[in-house]
Amino acid sequence: MGATLGELAVRFGCELRGDPDVRIETVGTLQGAGPGALAFFVNPRLRDALSRTRAAAVVLSAESATACPVPVLVAAEPHATFARIATLLHPPRPAAAGVHASAVVSPAARIAASASIGPLVVVEEGARVGERAQVGPGCVIGPGAVVGDDVVLVARVTLCQGVSVGARSILHPGVVIGADGFGFAPERRTWVKVPQVGGVRVGEDVEIGANTTVDRGAIEDTVIAEGVKIDNQVQVGHNVRIGAHTAIAGCVGIAGSATIGARCQLAGQVGVAGHLSICDDVVLTARALVVGDITEPGVYASAVPVEKFADWRRILARLKRLDILARKVEALARGGRGRDDEDDA
Amino acid sequence: MGATLGELAVRFGCELRGDPDVRIETVGTLQGAGPGALAFFVNPRLRDALSRTRAAAVVLSAESATACPVPVLVAAEPHATFARIATLLHPPRPAAAGVHASAVVSPAARIAASASIGPLVVVEEGARVGERAQVGPGCVIGPGAVVGDDVVLVARVTLCQGVSVGARSILHPGVVIGADGFGFAPERRTWVKVPQVGGVRVGEDVEIGANTTVDRGAIEDTVIAEGVKIDNQVQVGHNVRIGAHTAIAGCVGIAGSATIGARCQLAGQVGVAGHLSICDDVVLTARALVVGDITEPGVYASAVPVEKFADWRRILARLKRLDILARKVEALARGGRGRDDEDDA
Amino acid sequence: MGATLGELAVRFGCELRGDPDVRIETVGTLQGAGPGALAFFVNPRLRDALSRTRAAAVVLSAESATACPVPVLVAAEPHATFARIATLLHPPRPAAAGVHASAVVSPAARIAASASIGPLVVVEEGARVGERAQVGPGCVIGPGAVVGDDVVLVARVTLCQGVSVGARSILHPGVVIGADGFGFAPERRTWVKVPQVGGVRVGEDVEIGANTTVDRGAIEDTVIAEGVKIDNQVQVGHNVRIGAHTAIAGCVGIAGSATIGARCQLAGQVGVAGHLSICDDVVLTARALVVGDITEPGVYASAVPVEKFADWRRILARLKRLDILARKVEALARGGRGRDDEDDA
Predict the structure, then answer these.
(1) C238 an active-site residue?
(2) Is A162 touching B (CB cutoff 8 A)?
(3) For A245-271, b where at least 16 C-beta lie within 10 A, e where not — what string?
(4) Selected residue of B306, B308, B311, B343 to mutate for chain A interface (largest A Cβ count, 10 A)
(5) Which residue of A92, A100, A306 is in closest CB contact with C290?
(6) Chain C contacts in chain A segment 109-138 (CB below 8 A)
(7) Chain A partners of B100 at a C-beta cutoff of 8 Å?
(8) Do C211 and B174 touch (CB under 8 A)?
(9) A318 contacts in chain B (CB < 8 Å)
(10) CA A51 to chain CA mean position, Å
């Protein structure tokens, strides 16, 4: 699967500075790569590592080329070019077409001849699996669910009744698409279940991380647009809509009926309340909490990083008395003395 | 499965205002429903949508009836009545009684004749499955576990050894009930595993969302009372006790030995520390953190919603110096000048 | 499986105060234990329960012995000693060696003769399973994955291609080890997948809770050192390194390339940002958020516990105006009046 630098330069449209016959077999980090391994450089904090690298070659931008002691492939977007070369060098494992003998496939399901259905998979009636799709061990494809062409369900993925997954999407182990949304109506201090009759539509080129859950809609569908990337252990509530190419990191929770725009980035542990709207091109930093509409693109934050425990305890005590402090300052500004007895009225 | 408005009014005890012969086949939103579809109205923010709805009919309260341009079913609790009608119109898929040929069922398990055991299910020795229970594809029912009458385990649910699930409860894909609690004793700077010999008792009419986990007790049982509703990706630690009809939204974490009362509501991403007690009828808003007992019913909060990043950074810098600011104010109140050198003593 | 107090004292090196012929059959809490049951005492808040206990005997430290009305086993680390006795009294269920008829095992996998492969397990080509390892129902062991001696995969665990799990480790249901890390390179406002070619190495004596996920490395491996204990629903990103004997409670999220030292303790819902380093012996309290290096051992915190909703709303409003308040105080300290119009310049 290896290639020469000359071949890579031609195939991926890079400028090569160095010997075109150098052979690349694998990828590595700037620090760890040795002969035969290709690294990349985009993070300025690694400039020192770049200057000492023993990689066979490095993918980087034009302005960094002279800082590199080994051959370089110059690319406009070095990380993306590196990713494409890495895919060439480390292609996904091919899966043999056909249905494993241990799979339980309904005669009323339609499986493309080029699809691969792994061991101990269940495909229920009315489900459809597209060309070259790979359904790994232990997956469950519910009644009427649709798996697009070239989709990969790695292992133990559950698609509930009627959900659809667009072409080329990748779903990792433990993903559950289309479980009932959390819908209950109050009645005499108990809860009545509201049937969840909507579905889930996952677009093309979506990736969904391990143990992430996307609930089916209450009435209409939950929608994940094309190109969305979702990390592990993310919870997406019913009737959420996520716009194209938005990226969502691990442990994010998105409550029901939230609408998130295109090209947003949600960092880890972000929370989004229900029934609100976030416009396109919003960045939410780690653990940001959104409880109202965001109508202007930009970066938003609300998290508090750690302090030493004793310091934080002091700050916290002050925070809990902040209203009193502010009233004291107001009294001082009015010319008073801001004594406690003024404030506790 | 359809019904006329007249039939629905009689069956669900509603007052009908409009043509009793209008036929209802499905449900819809106020905005999306067309001929044959029933909507409901409870959220005042949707009053405009109500006035323009093209639904065949709307379930609502008496005071909203005149604002509706189409036939109405007047109900005391419109959302609950809607939920019951929706269940009539969209009944759950029936599951055929019997054990699928691919299931692996211990001869020492007891399966009711009316129960449905799906493909690739494992039922271990001593387990019992009740009348009309539905055990979906890929579930694992451990040794001695008990599945009550009419329980639905949707798919890929794991019940560990000896846990019990009460009648009519619904567990969604990926749920794990009865894994070992997180119990380790320190010994010479390493950890010794504490055997988790308690069980888990899940009451009747409980619903548990996808990929939620409920750990078994260390010595005594973890207990989820009747009517509790738990959303996706919630973690319930060992020896937690949750009171009847409490509702818990997604991504909540409840540490070991916490006791939560009846009829509480925990919003998304709430955290509850261990070994504490929350009384009945407590509401915790999104991402609230509880680290001590709550003894008074009411609404509690601690979350900070987002600001623009630059604004938040400024606020955060001030927060981290809040103790100094407060001491400065105290000095001013004493008649001093509140200079920094006074505070840094 | 029972034993006399005399036997336990000898076997576990405890000083016995009381009748050596008292027979112990099980374990219990101080409050719940009756005849035949052994309890332990370490938490000073339970001193009252100790004084009233009806347990057959109690494991405790020398200084507490006189406060106990029943026979005692005196131990230097009472909880650890109790844990070891509990393991003797309640041994893990033995699993019969051999491969269940319903398992799908590649002929190119190597399974030790003493290992137990449960029903509906998949073991792919090149995988290896060690002596006495127990692979429970529904597990998937990917190509080339390595399961060490005496490992327990309880049920429905997924080990992806090439990952390794050290001897005696225990992985609970729903765990996913080695799913692709969240690696995407930006390209013309969309994302290109970066192949994740590293692996995961889980050390010896590790325990990993239900539905926890540990991603494979992008280029090099993700590493969990020996003796690490991880609770449920924890997310560990690609290329994270966790030092020996560190304990991580439920719902923690650790972003990619974070390095965490040895003997750390992370409480529930903690967040750790990527590309940073935490030294040995750091304690992070519930929901602490780490966004930069920690270089000094100690306890760190950043969480805000709940207030009544109305109180919190007032505090929050002040917090959002904290920058303005601080400028007002500065103006007052300079001798001004701190009026709003001074601050809004």
Answers:
(1) yes
(2) no
(3) bbbbbbbbbbbbbbbbbbbbbbbbbbb
(4) B306
(5) A306
(6) 118-120, 136-138
(7) 104
(8) yes
(9) 322-323, 325-326
(10) 32
Which residues have a Cβ under 8 Å from the Cβ of A8 and sit 6 or more positions away?
A: A14, A16, A24, A38, A73, A85, A88
Rounded Cα gap, residues A213 and C193, in angstroms: 21
**CB distance from A189 to chain B under 8 Å?**
yes
Q: What is the pLDDT of residues C46-90, one digit of tens each?
A: 999 999 999 999 999 999 999 999 999 999 999 999 999 999 999
Residue C165 reports pLDDT greater than 60 = yes
Residues of B in contact with C137 (CB under 8 A): 104, 122, 124, 140
- Kindly report the length of chain C: 345
ipTM, 2 decimals? 0.95
State the smallest CA–CA distance between residue B329 and chain C in angstroms. Answer: 7
> Which residues of chain A are under the pLDDT cut of 50?
341-345
Residues A195-213, buried b or exposed e (16+ Cβ, 10 A)?
bbbbbbbbbbbbbbbbbbb
- Tell me the count of B-C CB pairs closer than 8 A: 221
Lowest mean pLDDT among A280-289, B85-94, C107-116, C128-137: B85-94
CATH architecture of the domain with residue range C99-300: 3 Solenoid (2.160)
* Count of CB atoms situated within 10 Å of the CB of B307: 18
Chains that touch C (3 or more CB pairs under 8 A): A, B
Question: Where do the CATH 3.40.1390.10 domains begin and end in chain B?
Answer: 3-89
Q: Indicate the CATH number for domain A3-89.
A: 3.40.1390.10
Instruction: Count CA within 13 A, CB hemisphere, residue C56.
Output: 20
- Of A323-332, B212-221, C173-182, C215-224, where does mean pLDDT reach its minimum? A323-332
- From the list C160, C255, C291, the residue facing A305 with the nearest CB is C291
Round to whole Å and give the CA distance between B256 and B343. Answer: 42
Going edge to edge, which strands form the sheet with C72-74? C15-17, C72-74, C57-60, C37-40, C26-27
Give the C-alpha distances (Å, rounded to integers) separating B225 from B204, B207, B211, C269: 7, 11, 20, 25
- B98-300 CATH choice from 3.40.50.12160, 2.160.10.10, 3.30.565.60, 2.60.40.10: 2.160.10.10
